[in-house]
Amino acid sequence: MKTTPEHNNRIAKMTFASVYPHYVTKVEKKGRTIAELHTVIKWLTGFNDEDIQNHIENKTTFETFFSQATLNKHAHLIKGVICGYRIEELKTPLTKQVRYLDKLVDELAKGKKMDKILRKE
């Protein structure tokens, strides 16, 4: 499935703060913790807990969120389908990065072991 420019723009303008509570709900409903959620966010972005909190408080858009992130060198190993899109086929870098995060949260909620979620080459 190919993304449209409108879809990519909508993702860029969406705030991390608007999606974060959904991530928390999703992982806690499956018995995982906020600490584990932060572990996967930190692994992908290079942010620390204070950075994550600042992005929430400042209602940072995903465009700004990922422009300030230092993407993990193993992020390219995140593959599969999320939200109807095959990650490895996404052409827009920002959309791909947001879907990386969605996929990590999904794997966490599905009970995947942390070692598998935090890919190592």
General description of the model:
The chain is 59% helix and 3% strand. It is mainly alpha-helical and 121 residues long. It has one domain: uncharacterized protein sp1917 domain (Helicase, Ruva Protein, domain 3, Orthogonal Bundle), CATH 1.10.8.290. The protein is globular and about 35 Å long. This is DUF2200 domain-containing protein.
Q: CATH fold name, please?
A: Helicase, Ruva Protein, domain 3
Would you count the extended β strands for me? Answer: 2
Helical content class: 55-70%
Q: Please provide the ordered H/E string of secondary-structure elements.
A: HHHHHEEHH
Low-pLDDT stretches are none
Mean pLDDT, nearest integer?
A: 94
Give the name of the CATH architecture. Orthogonal Bundle
Rounded Rg? 13 Å
**N- and C-termini, Cα separation:** 28 Å
SSE class? mainly alpha
Largest sheet: 2 strands, antiparallel
Q: Quickly name the level 1 CATH class.
A: Mainly Alpha
Tell me the fraction of residues in β-strands, as a range: under 5%
Quaternary structure: single chain
Kindly report the spatial arrangement of strands forming the biggest sheet: 1-2
Q: In the CATH hierarchy, what is the superfamily?
A: uncharacterized protein sp1917 domain
* Overall body shape: globular
Domain count: 1
Q: Helical segment tally?
A: 7
